[in-house]
UniProtKB/TrEMBL annotation:
It comes from Ravibacter arvi. This is Ankyrin repeat domain-containing protein. SUPFAM superfamilies: Ankyrin repeat (SSF48403). PROSITE patterns: ANK_REP_REGION, ANK_REPEAT. InterPro entries: Ankyrin-SOCS_Box, Ankyrin_rpt, Ankyrin_rpt-contain_sf.
């Protein structure tokens, strides 16, 4: 019986593959609209949207068309998508949204566009942070200025690490001119200077410990 089974197996393995037999599909076909956005084909995208294509189409990682445009700083494409109702707050699989990503990467023009088109301040990134906090960490002065002076923006929001925007500018910055500007902007916008981190240390204490004399002066001045 065993020999018979082996014989059948060997015969079946030796049979040629019928070229007309459909093979299993192991590849995934990306939505053409996604590809058009990535390649900045504005006319093609607009035509698709006019015909009823979903402006909030997502890719395999949950990224919307608008988030993909934001990733590549395609400002005109982003403006087109917003015009057709793209959601500036819709998050992908790692909790990035167009608004949050634009803030984190210092794309001030897009941040302004998204603020004017429904950006929500209670949608947070994977660190439970706002668009402002990573902007401070990365030294995006103009973006910080815009967000810090936006009405009702939660300037003192504390993220999962226990840090505010001010704390990130001090702890993760290097004390250089752009971080000095950011600290000044946050202070003038009315941020709370005394919110401590999870270890009970304030931004001022961190600035002193790091030897950031100008930031210390800014924080201590009236």
């Amino acid at each position: 019986m065993i020999l018979y089974i082996l014989f059948i197996f060997m015969v079946s393995c030796s049979q040629p593959v019928n070229p007309d037999t459909p093979m299993p599909n192991t590849s995934t076909t990306e939505n053409p609209l996604i590809n058009d956005v990535k390649k900045n084909r504005i006319e093609a995208v607009e035509q698709a949207l006019k015909k009823g294509a979903d402006v909030n189409t997502r890719d395999s990682k949950g990224r919307t068309l608008l988030l993909l445009a934001t990733h590549d700083a395609l400002n005109d494409m982003a403006a087109l998508l917003v015009k057709y109702g793209a959601d500036v707050n819709r998050q992908d699989d790692i909790k990035d949204s167009p608004f949050l990503y634009a803030g984190a990467t210092g794309q001030t023009q897009l941040v302004k566009l998204f603020l004017e088109n429904g950006a929500k301040f209670n949608v947070f990134n994977r660190y439970n942070g706002t668009a402002l906090i990573p902007a401070c960490e990365r030294g995006h002065v103009e973006t910080v200025k815009l967000l810090a002076n936006t009405r009702n923006f939660p300037i003192d929001h504390v993220n999962r690490l226990g840090w505010t925007a001010l704390m990130e500018a001090v702890v993760l910055g290097n004390g250089s001119e752009k971080y000095q500007q950011i600290v000044r902007i946050l202070k003038e916008a009315g941020c709370n200077l005394n919110i401590p981190d999870n270890d009970g240390k304030t931004a001022l204490q961190h600035a002193r410990a790091s030897g950031y004399k100008e930031i210390v002066r800014i924080l201590e001045s009236e």
